[in-house]
Each structure stands twice: as C-alpha cells, then as structure tokens.
Amino acid sequence: MEEIRNIYCVGRNYKKHAEELGNQVPSEPLIFMKPTHALHTTEGEVHLPFEQGEIHFEGELVVRMREDYHPDKPLDAMLDGIALGIDFTARDVQSKLKEKGHPWTMAKGFPGSAVVSRFVPFPGEEAFREGAFSLFKNGRIVQNGYPERMIFSLRELIDVIGGRLGLGQGDIIFTGTPEGVGPVARGDVFTFEMESGSQSYAFGPLHIQ
Q: Which family does it belong to (predicted)?
C-alpha cells in the first residue's frame, strides 16, 4: 500500500444513510479521523474486534492528495488517486459514545477499520461525480454508491478539511457511505467494484476473521 499520512473521514454524507441510522442530516461536513494503523488492504484476512460488540461495514470512495491544499487549486491538480474502501465501525461502542457526547475514535480507529484498495488515477472532478461503486458481501450487492448523491461535494469536503485542518501529499479522505450498511460476521467475504471515468475496477476478496 502506498504511503499514507492522515486518514480523514466524512460522516453522514448521503441523506439516506443518515436517515437509516436515525441521524439528523448535517448542515456542514461531519469530519473525523482514523490512525494509520487502522489501514488494511482489500485483499487477504482482516481481524475485527467482535468482542466489543456488533461491527458494521460502510463502503466508501476514497481519494488521495497529490500535493498540498490551496483554495485556488482545481481538484484535478491536488488529487492523484481514487480507491474503494470500508470504514468498519464498532456500532455498539459508537452508540454508547454518542449517548455520552464523546468522540467516536474508539469505535472507528481500531486496527483493520480503514480498508483501502489500491489507488487508480483520479478521473477528474466531473467524472468522479458521475461515477459509481458497489460493495458485495458474500457475493450479494449490499451497497451501491453514486457520488452525485453526496450531500457535500468533493470540492466542499476538500475546502473544509484543507481550510480548517490542512491537507497535504499522501493524505486520504473517505468521502462518506451510502445507505445499506450492516453487520459483519466471521467468515464473511467482501468484494468491490467501481466505475471511474471510462474504466471499471474490481478489488478483493477481503475475508473477515
């Protein structure tokens, strides 16, 4: 896996996903982070902390920064890669943290919680918006994602993260998950498909342990 610096993630960036979990649709991007030891490829085996309670999958598109953020730079100049990923979430842990008004880090940052495929060339801002992706669990489609349905566009996300937190070469952004998230169990197998520009890509399999 290419060297990755910071892992930024966007919560509730698809309206139907926010609604399926009973969450309010945000009025501005909801940003959180994962540590780099959470990284895992889309192939092989990943060991998840089921002893902590129910773990959910959240399939997402991931983009990678080629150079430092500047508000006047076009996205095509700042981004060089796009990938598919899963934001694994310890849902029981997250629910307890939310009840207390605490940060989500313990529910989002465990080893293996940031699954990322190999990066392929970023297709450009317009092609990104017109793309699509699918997540398969045990051979069945569980999520279909269309970036045009994101509440906050890729440009908006990068301006907020870059302007407030900083973005530089090697940083990646999980851009949010569509509806269809659900629990995982040992023995599940995930595969991934993505349409980007005029190209089709497939990744996986990822075996849950």
A: Belongs to the FAH family.
> What single-letter DSSP state applies at residue 21?
T
Residue 54 has pLDDT above 80, yes or no: yes
Please say whether the beta carbons of 68 and 161 come within 8 A: no
The Cα 198–Cα 165 span in angstroms is: 33
Determine the 3-state secondary structure of 44 from DSSP: strand
Indicate whether this model's pTM tops 0.90: yes
144-183 burial, b at 16+ Cβ within 10 Å, e below that, comes to ebebeebbbbbeebbbbbbeeeebeeebbbbbbbbbbbee
For residue 208, give Cα distances in angstroms to 129, 132, 204. 30, 24, 12
Query: Alpha-carbon torsion 180, 183, 187, 190, what sign?
Result: positive
Helix (H, G, I), strand (E, B) or coil at 92: helix
List the Cα angle 59/62/67 in 5-degree steps: 170
Q: pLDDT digits over 89-124, tens only?
A: 999 999 999 899 999 999 999 999 999 999 999 999
Residues 6+ apart with CB under 8 A from 53: 90, 91, 92, 93
Q: pLDDT band at residue 206, thresholds of 50, 70 and 90?
A: very high
